[in-house]
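Researcher: Next sequence.
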Amino acid sequence: VQLQASGGGLVQAGGSLRLSCAASGSIFSTNVMGWYRQGTGKQRELVAVKTSDYTTNYADSVKGRFTISRDYAKNTAWLQMNSLKPEDTAIYYCNVKDNNGRYFRDYWGQGTQVTVSS
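Model: Next structure:
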């Protein structure tokens, strides 16, 4: 499975960006797909994920501003980011975790830079 992410860029505070991630190849039906981010000098952290049973989980810092959506048939996810803040500046990584009850797999995309200027 390969993950192709796109949509990062430079935006002013208060602006919006939309990230997309497409997974090529087959993923198990039990899966979680979403986004993590890593700022300079910081640990990688969860931003938003959505499971195969439609459950979503957001970091407290992005609740109400970011929305994750998925097209399950196309193994694609989007992250709509509104009201961006300078502290949202980071490299954003797409991630898929899946399992079939026997094997657990964890895939990462190449990362896309999001920079929010004040």
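Model: The chain has a mean pLDDT of 97. The first strand starts at residue 2 and ends at 6.
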